[in-house]
Amino acid sequence: MSAETASATPPAPAKAAAGGGLRERKKERTRRTIRTEAFRLFREQGYTETTVEQIAAAAEISPSTFFRYFPSKEQVALADDLDPLMIAAIEAQPKDLSLLAAFKQATVAAFATLTAEEFAFEKERVELLYSVPELRGAVAQEVQRNLLMVAEIAARWTGRAPDDFEVLAFAGALTGAMTAFIDRDPFSPEQIIRVIEFLEAGMSSL
Q1: In this predicted model, what pLDDT tens digit does every residue of 96-119 receive, in sequence order?
Q2: Phi, psi at residue 160, to the nearest 5°?
């Protein structure tokens, strides 16, 4: 079964950490069930038409329980479970690599942990964000959040401050370059690698 045809299942952020107690595992199962049922409803009847009450009923929880996991329906769609996987993958890279090389190898490693179902979910999630007018307004905030996350990673890698000029320029270049292709090729690890390699080469082919 290919990633495109697999049934969508949210990635498990817990993959980024070892173990986890029974309470944490139960909470993670509930969270994943909420997202699975929410996206099933988005797919079947549309994002706008789906209510928190419907999602809660499909997940067999109360609306108040829903709000303990997500502050809004919007956040069900915006939550990026790949972040902890990517951060863990970057931190696992050899420290003698350049920052871009570390991002490139970490991208390959992080995507390799996803099952076909998890990949399908993330691809569907990104497509939803850029196709629903109600969500597109929140995407700009997500881009800024991603930029700051990349800056934090770059700062730790280089030993510099997150607001260092070169750190922010790196984060802006990488985040902006990847965002430029999101409408054309949503959630493509191959596209991300291609972007990183182009930046790595100093954009010298232009």
Answers
A1: 999 999 999 999 999 999 999 999
A2: -100, 175
